[in-house]
């Protein structure tokens, strides 16, 4: 068998075809791979396995990053119990579970590099693409970033690129895993996830958390609509979750872009990436804080209001974290905690109580 075949390596989920809708829409590239390489291809002492802030990144990743332990999660009693409820005999071997917890499991034997291990969980290749095509060239100083990306290394510099790489596993999940298996429902929020990630990289161009939050929410909205349109999510609340994301992104986006209410989610994500400036964070924060009246709108169902509140409090949290006025952001913290408490339970959500607490938050943010 000729192992030099064309294989797509654009998201962690592409090992099993669980790729984002944007990739399905045509933004895909093909690279000739001999083998899919594992973590050890990056971990030699002269590269990312040595000492120093850059060279020691593989060790830091394996010690501290939850992605490195994602396969181990499948071996816990809780995962076994979820498997029983779903009729899955071995969750460590089920594509429904390994698609995100151990993407290497779906790589055909003929394409497996000697160092590719399912036990490594979400390894280097899952996020950066297999280094088979770019390992030897990515350290060359005479090549710019675009040339390295052209060789097959995944671009992760922008918020839009990172959101596309992460959303497949951090939001797209089979409804039966949640409904029957009691898997936690996934809420994709890019900036918070990046902030919680043990830093094994350098931010070459800086990082604007407020921008990353909003671009990520636009991508989350895009994916919610894509899976519903494809008939892959007919679960209770799916429509309301998509509508809540649309409300949030358009409400925030109209503070940055003209015509945001008429734009689709991917167009908004791209334009927000291109046109956001640091001043927009405070403007968006104040606009969202003034949305209490919209939680008293009788034309919006209580369930959609609950999902709006769930996304809104996460957004306010990231906007406060990025707000330069640290004293005022700190003063708003206790009021944000009260908003989180009011939005914590979707079944018990009370729109009027949330609206009243949001008004208190808005006053503190404006003072």
Structure notes:
By secondary structure, the protein is mainly α. The protein has two domains: 1-155, no CATH class; 156-367, no CATH class. Helices cover 49% and strands 2% of the residues. The chain has a two-stranded antiparallel ribbon. It is globular and about 60 Å long. The termini are far apart.
Which helices and strands, and how do they pair?
Layout: E1 5-7, H1 21-24, E2 31-33, H2 57-64, H3 70-73, H4 77-86, H5 95-101, H6 124-128, H7 145-150, H8 159-170, H9 175-179, H10 190-196, H11 209-229, H12 238-253, H13 265-275, H14 280-289, H15 302-322, H16 326-343, H17 351-366
Antiparallel strand pairs: 1-2
Helix pairs in contact: 8-11, 10-11, 11-12, 11-13, 11-15, 12-14, 12-15, 14-15, 15-16, 16-17
């Amino acid at each position: 068998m000729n192992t030099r075949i064309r294989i797509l390596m654009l998201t962690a989920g592409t090992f099993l075809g669980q790729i984002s809708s944007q990739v399905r829409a045509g933004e895909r590239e093909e690279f000739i791979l001999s083998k899919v390489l594992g973590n050890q291809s990056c971990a030699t002492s002269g590269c990312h396995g040595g000492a120093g802030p850059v060279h020691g990144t593989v060790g830091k990743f394996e010690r501290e990053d939850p992605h490195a332990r994602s396969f181990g999660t499948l071996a816990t009693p809780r995962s076994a119990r979820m498997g029983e409820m779903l009729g899955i005999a071995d969750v460590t071997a089920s594509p429904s579970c390994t698609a995100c917890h151990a993407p290497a499991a779906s790589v055909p034997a003929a394409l497996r590099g000697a160092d590719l291990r399912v036990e490594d969980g979400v390894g280097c290749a899952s996020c950066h693409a297999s280094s088979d095509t770019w390992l030897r060239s990515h350290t060359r100083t005479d090549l710019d970033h675009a040339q390295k990306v052209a060789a097959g290394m995944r671009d992760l510099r922008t918020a839009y690129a990172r959101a596309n790489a992460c959303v497949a596993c951090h939001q797209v999940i089979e409804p039966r895993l949640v409904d029957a298996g009691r898997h936690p429902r996934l809420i994709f929020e890019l900036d918070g996830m990046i902030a919680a990630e043990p830093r094994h990289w350098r931010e070459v161009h800086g990082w604007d958390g407020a921008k990353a939050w909003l671009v990520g929410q636009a991508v989350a909205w895009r994916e919610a609509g894509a899976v519903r349109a494809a008939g892959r999510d007919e679960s209770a609340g799916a429509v309301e979750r998509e509508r809540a994301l649309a409300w949030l992104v358009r409400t925030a986006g109209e503070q940055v872009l003209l015509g945001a209410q008429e734009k689709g989610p991917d167009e908004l994500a791209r334009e927000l990436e291109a046109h956001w400036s640091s001043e927009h964070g405070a403007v968006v924060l104040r606009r969202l804080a003034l949305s209490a009246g919209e939680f008293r709108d009788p034309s919006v169902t209580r369930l959609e209001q609950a999902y709006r509140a769930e996304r809104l409090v996460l957004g306010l949290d990231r906007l406060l974290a990025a707000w330069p006025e640290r004293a005022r952001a700190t003063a708003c913290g206790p009021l944000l905690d009260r908003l989180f408490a009011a939005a914590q339970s979707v079944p018990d959500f009370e729109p009027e109580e949330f609206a009243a607490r949001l008004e208190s938050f808005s006053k503190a943010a404006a003072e």
